[in-house]
Amino acid sequence: MAETIFSKIIRKEIPAKIAFENEHVLAFHDINPQAPVHVLIIPKIVIPTVSELSGKEHAALLGEMIDAANTIAKEQGIDEKGFRLVMNCKADGGQDVYHLHMHLLGGRKMTWPPG
Hints:
Helices cover 23% and strands 22% of the residues. By secondary structure, the chain is of the alpha+beta class. The chain has a five-stranded antiparallel beta sheet, with helices on one face. The longest helix has 21 residues, at 55-75.
Protein backbone atom coordinates (compact mmCIF):
# COMPACT_ATOMS: atom_id res chain seq x y z
CA MET A 1 0.00 0.00 0.00
CA ALA A 2 1.43 3.38 -1.01
CA GLU A 3 2.01 5.98 1.68
CA THR A 4 -0.21 9.06 1.38
CA ILE A 5 -0.22 12.51 2.89
CA PHE A 6 -3.33 11.47 4.83
CA SER A 7 -1.41 8.68 6.59
CA LYS A 8 1.13 11.27 7.72
CA ILE A 9 -1.67 13.56 8.96
CA ILE A 10 -3.20 10.66 10.92
CA ARG A 11 0.20 10.02 12.57
CA LYS A 12 0.53 13.80 13.23
CA GLU A 13 3.73 13.94 11.16
CA ILE A 14 2.19 16.72 9.07
CA PRO A 15 0.19 19.44 10.81
CA ALA A 16 -3.47 19.90 9.98
CA LYS A 17 -6.30 21.99 11.39
CA ILE A 18 -8.30 19.21 13.04
CA ALA A 19 -12.08 19.59 12.99
CA PHE A 20 -12.99 16.22 14.52
CA GLU A 21 -11.27 13.09 15.77
CA ASN A 22 -12.29 9.83 17.38
CA GLU A 23 -10.87 6.32 17.46
CA HIS A 24 -11.77 5.55 13.82
CA VAL A 25 -12.15 8.87 12.00
CA LEU A 26 -10.13 12.05 11.56
CA ALA A 27 -11.43 15.24 9.94
CA PHE A 28 -9.41 18.30 9.02
CA HIS A 29 -9.83 21.53 7.07
CA ASP A 30 -8.76 21.34 3.42
CA ILE A 31 -5.68 23.44 2.62
CA ASN A 32 -7.25 24.39 -0.75
CA PRO A 33 -10.88 25.03 0.23
CA GLN A 34 -13.54 25.03 -2.47
CA ALA A 35 -16.17 26.54 -0.16
CA PRO A 36 -16.16 28.64 3.03
CA VAL A 37 -16.35 25.33 4.93
CA HIS A 38 -14.33 22.51 3.36
CA VAL A 39 -13.39 19.65 5.64
CA LEU A 40 -11.96 16.26 4.68
CA ILE A 41 -13.23 13.30 6.68
CA ILE A 42 -11.04 10.19 6.54
CA PRO A 43 -10.93 6.78 8.18
CA LYS A 44 -7.85 6.08 10.26
CA ILE A 45 -7.38 2.81 8.38
CA VAL A 46 -6.21 2.83 4.78
CA ILE A 47 -8.91 2.10 2.24
CA PRO A 48 -7.64 3.46 -1.08
CA THR A 49 -10.93 3.99 -2.95
CA VAL A 50 -14.70 3.75 -2.66
CA SER A 51 -14.44 0.69 -4.94
CA GLU A 52 -12.74 -1.20 -2.13
CA LEU A 53 -15.52 -0.66 0.37
CA SER A 54 -17.70 -3.54 1.47
CA GLY A 55 -21.08 -2.72 2.98
CA LYS A 56 -20.87 -5.59 5.43
CA GLU A 57 -17.30 -4.84 6.50
CA HIS A 58 -17.33 -1.04 6.41
CA ALA A 59 -20.91 -0.02 7.25
CA ALA A 60 -20.08 1.09 10.79
CA LEU A 61 -17.05 3.08 9.61
CA LEU A 62 -19.10 4.87 6.94
CA GLY A 63 -21.71 5.61 9.59
CA GLU A 64 -19.03 7.18 11.77
CA MET A 65 -17.89 9.32 8.84
CA ILE A 66 -21.47 10.56 8.33
CA ASP A 67 -21.85 11.21 12.08
CA ALA A 68 -18.60 13.21 11.98
CA ALA A 69 -19.92 15.22 9.01
CA ASN A 70 -23.14 16.05 10.88
CA THR A 71 -21.21 17.04 14.02
CA ILE A 72 -18.83 19.28 12.05
CA ALA A 73 -21.68 20.83 10.04
CA LYS A 74 -23.43 21.77 13.28
CA GLU A 75 -20.21 23.15 14.82
CA GLN A 76 -19.52 25.17 11.66
CA GLY A 77 -23.08 26.54 11.58
CA ILE A 78 -23.99 25.05 8.19
CA ASP A 79 -26.35 22.30 9.36
CA GLU A 80 -29.53 24.38 9.01
CA LYS A 81 -28.96 25.86 5.54
CA GLY A 82 -27.36 22.72 4.10
CA PHE A 83 -24.11 21.24 2.94
CA ARG A 84 -22.71 18.76 0.44
CA LEU A 85 -20.85 15.49 1.03
CA VAL A 86 -18.67 14.18 -1.81
CA MET A 87 -16.58 11.05 -2.22
CA ASN A 88 -14.52 10.89 -5.42
CA CYS A 89 -13.40 7.53 -6.80
CA LYS A 90 -10.28 7.04 -8.92
CA ALA A 91 -8.87 9.33 -11.62
CA ASP A 92 -11.99 9.96 -13.72
CA GLY A 93 -13.97 10.58 -10.53
CA GLY A 94 -11.53 13.28 -9.44
CA GLN A 95 -9.70 11.37 -6.69
CA ASP A 96 -6.19 12.75 -6.10
CA VAL A 97 -5.23 11.04 -2.83
CA TYR A 98 -5.74 7.29 -2.71
CA HIS A 99 -6.96 7.14 0.87
CA LEU A 100 -10.75 7.13 1.15
CA HIS A 101 -12.03 10.58 2.05
CA MET A 102 -15.27 12.50 2.16
CA HIS A 103 -15.45 16.21 1.43
CA LEU A 104 -17.82 18.26 3.59
CA LEU A 105 -18.58 21.48 1.71
CA GLY A 106 -20.81 24.30 2.88
CA GLY A 107 -21.21 27.93 3.74
CA ARG A 108 -22.41 28.86 0.23
CA LYS A 109 -25.06 27.79 -2.26
CA MET A 110 -23.92 24.65 -4.08
CA THR A 111 -24.52 24.38 -7.83
CA TRP A 112 -25.37 21.40 -10.02
CA PRO A 113 -23.86 19.77 -11.92
CA PRO A 114 -20.77 19.90 -9.71
CA GLY A 115 -18.10 19.47 -12.39
